[in-house]
Amino acid sequence: QGVSRTFALTIPQLPGRLRTVVGNAYLLCRIADTIEDCPGVAMADKRRLYDAFVAAAAGTGSEAFAAEAEALIGPRMSAAERELLANAPAVIRVT
Question: What pTM, to 2 d.p., does this model score?
C-alpha cells in the first residue's frame, strides 16, 4: 500500500487468483518505475539495474538485484520504496 494510492484500493476487490496476478504485475511495474524515478542516478547505472531486474524476473539473481538496487537507489527513495526493493525477490518468486 505504501507504493500505491489508487491500485492499493482496487486490487483487493478482484477475485482471489486475479488479485494475486494483477497485484504481482503491479509490483513488478512499481519496481521498474522506482528505478526510473530515482533522482541523481546516472542512466548507465539505471540501465545496469534494469538489466539485472530483467535477469532476475527470468530466474537469475533476484537476491543480487535487490541488494544492488537497494545499495544504489535505496538511500534516495522513500521507506515504502526501499521496502519494495528489499522484497523484490519475493515479488519475483510469485512471478
Answer: 0.87
